[in-house]
Structure formats: structure tokens, C-alpha cells
Amino acid sequence: MSVGNVQKAPTGPNKPAERSKSNGAEEPKSQFNPRLLWPDMIKIPDNPWTFTCKEVIEKLGTNPQATAEMKRCMEKCLIYFYTVKKKLNLLDHTYTAACILFFRYWFVYGLPHTLTDCIHVSQAILVTACKTMENNRPIDAYVKATCEFLVKDLSGLRTKQNMDKLRWDVRDRLVESEKAILCSFGFDLNIENPKDLIEEMFSGYYRFNRDYDLPEEFKLVFPKILQEARNFIVQAVTQPVSLLCDGYTFIALSLIYCGLQFKKLVDKDFRFPANFFSDKFPVAVTAQRFEEIFTDYRIIEENFFDLKSNKGDKLEISAADINSVIQEPEVPEECPSAAANPYDYELMKSGEVKQELIDHIEKRVQELFDRTVMEVKKRSSENPSEVEPAVKKAKI
To answer: Which fold, 53-185?
Structure first.
């Protein structure tokens, strides 16, 4: 039966408006409005991801054997993140994001029963972190690195097994697990990654346009403290400290710790400038609050992983110790977490760009240009054929 001449009535938003002739007047009826279902601005879900130390410890359970097995699987997953980061040359930002997402997933959903399944979940978390923090890698790169890790580091897999079959299985599981991970988090990827935030907070823009009024002696030593704080963050995320505090609090914690170490080892008179934290952080920094966080951090270390990067007794930091390096205003007791947000767009949109920043950017661009030219010359000297293209044959 031919249906070529049958014409269907228009439907959906392109359908002509029907008019009512009641009372002798033609009035258009309401139509489908796509903007009600797809608004101009979509709000990303933002869920609280911080918990008390007691809640985190209780997640380990009370069965010693089951707890030991769980921690063994968790530690293997963290080793997987570090191994693949090295193989794929991922940023520290991606590594810290993967650790944060991993501990969030563990806290809410727990881990699969087998170590292989844990690695599959970790692979999806690492891919999600990479897509969030930097340029994504080809899927085959993740699959190859994961297969090599499974065969090399897991005793349950024999090295002689069919690698092609394993790669297809890992690839299929990645696609499935990635969808499950995104749905499990409710598409909430607002990680507040401290390693990423610390680079933004103390980038060239802020150094030259907001922090120009810092004391000169502090500006000389602060880069060293800042570098140690970056190392502190990368090491600390291997423990579930990210479940205790948000990203900005994590950065303040790292700076206070490194400031105290600098005071102890280098300069006994060192202190952060007055209002340093209140001017730069959208969270309140008080000695009492951070004494509690350091105590919780030490308890977390004692109950989770025995790593070379553990701080141990160095985390026994009192409120008096913290007050010896910070100079912050008193916070009202009725609202201890209140703090102004220095990154509010309304406060930043009309900021002045100083000549020092322009000169700094020009210098960095020139350094990048010179480095690129040197790399091209080096490759050219190693492969002369790349410089002298082959002569094309004349078409007959």
C-alpha cells in the first residue's frame, strides 16, 4: 500500500496555533514552550561532600578481616591512579581529582567485592577526573594502561591470557562504569579540587593585581611555602582527608602546616601577614577550627593507610601553634563559618591590570616561544628528513 501522498498534520512546536471562536473572538491557545524544559541556564547540582571524622571512621566497619580487605582494595586503587597518571603523563590536578571522587564514591556506595571490579570502577573515576580537569586521552590509552596494570599487579590474572579479549572486556566495562559513575554522583562534578584551586588563587593575575601590597620579606619566602603546600595536597589526598573539608579549607590547612614547618626549620619569627587568609579565602580560618581538622587528619592516618607520605606526630598541632603563624580577625561565635568571598564576580569584574602583570605575561610567552623553537631545532637535527620534505613526483 502506497502512503506517499498521505500528509500528516503538523505536530509539536511547529504546529499552527489553533484558535477558539467562542464569543466571536479568535484567541491563540497556549503552545509547547521548550524553554520551560530546557532553560537558558542549567544549574549544576551542588551537594555537601564533607563529613565528620567519626562518620568516615565508621564507614570502615567493625569486622577487622573485612576492614583489612577493604583497605587493601582501596590502597591498590590509589596505586592504580598513580601508575596510570605516570604512564599517560596526566596532571597532578587529575590525580587529586580522581582520589577525591574515589573517596566520595567509597563513602556513599562502598566498593565492589572483588579487586578487579574495584579497578574497573577506578578506571571510570580516573577518566571522569581527566575529562573534568584537562584534555582527555584516547580511550585506548586508558584501556592499554589498565590492562597492563591488571596483568602485572594482580596475581589473579595470568600473563599468558588473551590480551585482546582482556582489552575488549576492559573497554566495555569502562563505557558501562563511566555512565554508572556519573549517575551515582548525580552529575555533581563540583570537586573543589585543592590542587587546581591553589594554582588559581596564587596565579600571576592575583600575584600582580591583588597581592602587590604584601610585605616584601614575605613575598621572598612565600613561593617556597607555596610549593611545599602543593606537595602537601598531593600527598594528603591519598588519605580521605577530602571528606573532612572543602577545597579552600584544604588549601588553608596545607599553608598553615607548611608555614609552621618553615617557622620551625628556617625562620622562628615567621608569620603570615595580617588578614592574609580572610582577604584570600571564602572560608573562616580560626585556630580552634583548624586544630580540630589537624586532629581528625591524624586519626584518619592512623585508621587508614600506612604510607611514606604520612605526617604522623607532625599533625599534633595546637591552637596556640596555629595562632603563632596567623593574624586573623575574631570570628563571631554565632556564625563561625561566615566569611566574605573574595572571588565574587561583582568584586572582580572591574579590577585593574597592572603593568607588572603585562610584563610577566610577555616574559612567559617569550620563554614558551624560545622553548618551542629549541625543541623543533632538536627534533630537526635528530630527523633531517622532517626538515627536507621529499620531492613530489610530477604527474603524467
So the answer is: Cyclin A; domain 1 (1.10.472)
